């Protein structure tokens, strides 16, 4: 019985790998027709994520070129099919995906990151619980054992649809209240509160998440009441 289970698991893994490879070939062929434009947004992606991770006392991400290439391939495929679909990473990495369509908004990595982080308002800090599945986007971004990211943006010139894909590694997240409490930290200015109403958490603005021109380590935002509470006592926190 154990032997049959092992053979079955092996078959499933081979099937997923072959299927993933075929999808990427399809995406590459579509991209070669000059309908797909794909760019990596390394600096803005890193800065916005690490800005937010400081709020939750999580270590800064570093850039992973292999993840970035995977993100480029996958976002190209998504632009070719025009719908959101996850890439079945099998716990090697996690991913967040954002869909722009119709040219009604700019294709910007920071707007996507801000939207994902906005699901912090759906996370239950009081019971250390993902009560709404949408808050998993926030959890993936802030998990303190995740250390590397890679990202890309694609745009289909034919119908003006775009996709943002960010991949995060390592991808293992152990569920349960104890693990969430250990690896998903409260905002630094709310860490001593008995009760947190997540719906009242104020989000950083788009401008605050953009990289400042000449001083990427500028910490002026820490003195502003992002959550309705002054953060001036946290100025000792640094990006690295």
UniProtKB/TrEMBL annotation:
> Where does the UniProt annotation place the signal sequence?
1-27
Question: What SMART domains is this protein classified in?
Answer: SCP
What Pfam family does this protein match (any one)? CAP
Where the record annotates domain SCP, the positions are 40-175
Keywords, comma-separated and alphabetical: Signal
Name of this chain's protein:
SCP domain-containing protein
């Amino acid at each position: 019985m154990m032997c049959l289970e092992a053979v079955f698991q092996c078959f499933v893994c081979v099937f997923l790998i072959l299927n993933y490879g075929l999808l990427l070939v399809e995406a590459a062929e579509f991209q070669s027709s000059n309908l797909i434009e794909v760019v990596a947004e390394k600096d803005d992606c890193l800065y916005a994520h690490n800005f937010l991770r400081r709020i939750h006392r999580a270590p800064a991400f570093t850039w992973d070129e292999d993840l970035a290439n995977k993100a480029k391939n996958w976002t190209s495929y998504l632009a070719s099919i025009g719908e959101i679909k996850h890439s079945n990473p099998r716990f090697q990495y996690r991913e967040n995906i954002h869909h722009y369509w119709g040219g009604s908004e700019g294709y910007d990595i920071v707007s996507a990151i801000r939207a994902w982080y906005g699901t912090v308002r759906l996370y239950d800090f009081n019971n250390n619980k993902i009560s709404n599945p949408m808050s998993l986007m926030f959890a993936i971004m802030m998990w303190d054992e995740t250390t590397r990211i890679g990202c890309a943006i694609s745009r289909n010139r034919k119908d003006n649809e775009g996709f943002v894909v960010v991949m995060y590694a390592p991808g293992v997240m152990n569920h349960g209240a104890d693990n969430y409490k250990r690896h998903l930290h409260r905002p630094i200015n709310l860490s001593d509160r008995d009760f947190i109403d997540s719906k009242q958490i104020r989000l950083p603005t788009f401008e605050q998440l953009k990289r400042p021109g000449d001083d990427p380590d500028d910490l002026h935002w820490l003195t502003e009441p992002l959550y309705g509470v002054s953060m001036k006592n946290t100025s000792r926190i640094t990006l690295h």
